[in-house]
Amino acid sequence: MESFKLTADALMAQDPELAILPVGSLEQHGPHLPLMTDWAIATELGRRVAQLTGGFLLPALPISTCREQMGKKGSVWMEPTTFYQMMHDIILSLKTQGFKRVAILQCHGGIFIMTPLVRDLNARFNPELMVVNIDSCVFFGRLYQEGVYETNTELHAGEGETSMMLAIAPETVHMELAVDEVPDVPRSYLSYGSIFRASNSGVWGEAKCATAEKGEKAFARCAEMAVEEMEKAFAYMSKKEKFGYSNF
């Protein structure tokens, strides 16, 4: 059972030190995937990471920052400064309750303000609070190297995300509309124009290669890799000694 479905007393009895905060986005995902794709993936990945760690799982946040998806109705965003303050307040509320570790599972690649958020929280509150951000986009290449994916072009609505949605919500996927489109510009060009300037379909990858079997394997490995990465980061922060006036 997801821990946010427990009573407060039941959670108190478990008394976990780790809180898990998945973050998604509501945005276009090409002609074949639903707007909820990032949120659905964040929800499932959060559930699996909580099973592996026993941490307190918060419901996945459905809206973040996604101006790079502007152009079609349905992509909903908040300003980066608003997102920063919202996440700041949520995490400090967890600190007040006694949570000492927070693992953010970032399942939307366009949240560029996440880096200063995490750095600032750790600089101000370490060692009483340690915050780690796990960006699931960094796993795409590793899944290709391990043979889970056939392609190494995934960025948005390609083989990876389509496979994951086929594994957890196949009724929302329209494979007959799936397209393969790999822009000829680097990801950094999303700072210069929306994805539709680079991709007519809004897809960045090869969606036609997707299968539910690949999606299930990807979820299992992503959960394992997320736990490995957060444990490494928490261990790194835990072993630091005070340097001058700073614990950071």
Give an account of the 3D structure:
The two termini are 36 Å apart. The longest helix is centred in the C-terminal third of the chain and has 27 residues, at 212-238. The strands form 2 sheets. This protein has a 4-stranded parallel sheet with strand order 2-1-3-4, with helices on both faces. A two-stranded antiparallel ribbon has the order 5-6. Helix 2 (37-53) crosses helix 8 (212-238) and helix 6 packs across helix 8 (212-238). It has helices at 8-14, 37-53, 80-96, 114-125, 139-145, 159-168, 195-198, 212-238, and strands at 18-23, 56-57, 101-106, 130-135, 180-181, 205-206. Helix content is 41%, strand content 10%. With 248 residues, it is an alpha/beta fold. Strand 3, helix 4 and strand 4 form a beta-alpha-beta unit. The mean pLDDT is 97.
Question: How would you concisely characterize the structure shown here?
Answer:
This protein is α/β, with parallel strands linked by helices and about 250 residues long. The chain is about 40% helix and about 10% strand. Helix 2 (about 35-55) packs across helix 6 (about 160-170).
